[in-house]
Amino acid sequence: MEAKADLDIAITEGNRPYEPRGAALALFSCREREVLMEGPAGTGKTRALLEKANLCAIKYPGMRALLVRKTRESMTQSVLVTFEEKVVPPDWPILAGASRAQRQCYTYPNGSCLVIGGIDRSSKIMSTEFDLVLAFEARELTEDDWECLLTRLRHGAMPYQQAVADTNPDLPNHWLNRRAGGTRMIRLLSRHEDNPTIHADYLANLSQLTGVRRQRLYKGQWAGVEGRVYADFDSAVHLLDKRDIPPDWRRVRSIDFGFTHPLVCQWWAVDGDGRMYLYRELYRTRMLVEDAAKRIVALSEGERIEATVADHDAEGRATLERYNVATLPADKRIHIGIQAVSSRLRLADDGKPRLFLLRDVLVERDPRLSQCHEPACTQEEIDHYVWPRELSGSSRNSEAPAPGCDHGMDAMRYAVSYVDGLNHADAMLDIRVLGVRE
Ligand SMILES: Nc1ncnc2c1ncn2[C@@H]1O[C@H](COP(=O)(O)OP(=O)(O)OP(=O)(O)O)[C@@H](O)[C@H]1O
Ligand SMILES: [Mg+2]
After folding, report:
1. CATH code of the domain covering residue 347
2. Residue 16 reports pLDDT greater than 90
3. Which helix (H) or strand (E) holds 70?
4. What is the pTM assigned to this prediction?
């Protein structure tokens, strides 16, 4: 059998032991042009794609594969870690040279090459041809991104050319689910039993997730979110690649306190037309306000911050003040704030919204949150910020969204209320009562 023969080659070349199962095994013998490798969290999808890339690199001298995510930066801490720590032995020469963050490719002694890319750096990708394209976390890509990648599949050093998309399920009408429902793309279902290293604790954590995250990450189902507060949020519109912020733009910080829940500090820039851009974010559990204050000061070095709006926790604000982070009390009126954010998310006459989140601006991922598969930044919260299930239409005017995914959401509301000049009299009175510097 072809797949078995391929594996023998890898093992004799001194690879780390790996025995693919289920969808991973099917991937080794699959020669279809477009493949969707889907499944819940931790089933071994990414490992399977990387093992296939390595195997093909050894088997077909001179082949070229592209390992790609939406952004090059997001490859460094995810895919490249698995590749270097799990797939290739530590002393392999292909690992010599550049650090993970700087690396452009892994070159094999037989001339094969695994190129590392991001859709945000697409000019280099688009000028190269590949035998294999492996797209990780492919639900972040647009169908246009995917179709552009397919045009690059014509290197011809392998007997077949293939693009594989690795993803957790997303919305039922996501383009990947629709494409794999047709004839162009075949679907491989990766399941927890395919991963021999999975722990009972890991599965128990997943089973305790609620709502749509449980359906997608534990059950592996494409599932929609009902009652999204920011139903207009569309990652294809509101997420932008990271960019430099011109020094003359207004800058504002907003803070939502937490310890068991994350403490969130967002940095927003406002362009000449009043559009807001989230350009940096601290999102940490178990961080003392004192430590957060030091980080916030260090991260803001050299930037002129016009104001910092914060949740009303008096002790928290006093601690920030001790570290020279003077704060204004946030306008906490939920519905007015939600309306203000919603109206910024809607497209204006020029076809653009007035609020954007930049990709890859999280200062560092909180390992506890990632381990529990909880949102670890504002971008990951926004689709899960929902009205309580039983509420509909008008009753939403008197109730708050369901608790849970609301830490970055609160901070975002505070920032928008400030920039839109909504902070009302009570909030201003609070400034005088607390004697906070303006
Ligand atoms: N067949 C296998 N043999 C040994 N280890 C495996 C196997 N399959 C998966 N693993 C290990 O299990 C862990 C999770 O695998 P991986 O990261 O590929 O999962 P995933 O399906 O991509 O998860 P996610 O949906 O969270 O991205 C990794 O450490 C990987 O090396
Ligand atoms: Mg993965």
Report:
1. 3.30.420.280
2. no
3. none
4. 0.89
- Region 275-302: mean pLDDT is 98
Q: Supply 391's token pair.
A: 């509420």
Residues 373, 239: one domain?
A: yes
Concatenated DSSP letters for 309-358?
Answer: EE-S-HHHHHHHHHTT---EEP---HHHHHHHHHHHHS--TTS--SEEEE
Per-residue confidence at 433, pLDDT binned at 50, 70, 90? very low
pLDDT (tens digit, 9 = 90+) per residue, 144-153? 999 999 999 9
Q: Is 375 in the pocket of ligand 1 (CB under 6 A)?
A: no
* Mean pLDDT for the stretch of residues 295-312: 97
The alpha carbon of 400 and the centre of ligand 2 are apart by a number of angstroms equal to 34
The CA 118 to ligand 2 mean position distance, Å, reads: 16
Instruction: Name the residue with the closest Cα to ligand 1, atom 23.
Output: 42
Total structural domains within the chain: 2
Helix %, strand %, coil % of the chain (to 5): 40, 15, 45
- From first CA to last CA, the distance across the chain in angstroms is 73
Report the separation in Å between the CA atom of 317 and the middle of ligand 2, taken as the mean of its atom positions. 39
Q: Give me the pLDDT at residue 430, please.
A: 47
